[in-house]
């Protein structure tokens, strides 16, 4: 898999990648707060109910939200590089 990705993409090498950065994960920087608000609008009574709400919110998400998150990704990546991996919100 790594060989395929390396030969078919123009991403940074794995040792330079920041896989756990919430600043670079479109779901985290664009949608997770909205999902939390939706899920906690009323009391949950079980894990199954939580799963159901999460899936419903994800299913009902407008495609424009996803498109916007993806469109902003390169700008965030550049800001992260400029901030040398530090806080980047002030650079956006």
Task: Explain this structure.
- This protein is an all-alpha fold and 92 residues long.
- It has one domain.
- Helix content is 59%, strand content 0%.
- It contains 5 helices and no strands.
- The longest helix has 14 residues.
Per-chain topology:
Layout: H1 2-8, H2 26-39, H3 47-60, H4 63-71, H5 73-82
Helix pairs in contact: 2-4
Strand content: under 5%
Tell me the series of helices and strands, N- to C-terminal: HHHHH
Shape: extended
**How many strand elements?**
0
Our count of helices gives: 5
Count the domains: 1
Give Rg in angstroms: 17 Å
Structural class: mainly alpha
Helix content: 55-70%
Our measurement of the CA-to-CA distance between the termini, rounded to an integer number of angstroms, reads 33 Å
Q: What value does the average pLDDT take?
A: 76
Task: Tell me about the largest β-sheet.
Answer: none
User: Low-confidence segments, ≥5 residues, pLDDT <50?
Assistant: none
Summarize the entry for a quick read.
The chain has 92 residues and is mainly α. The protein is built from 5 helices and no strands.
Defining traits:
92 residues, mainly alpha, 59% helix
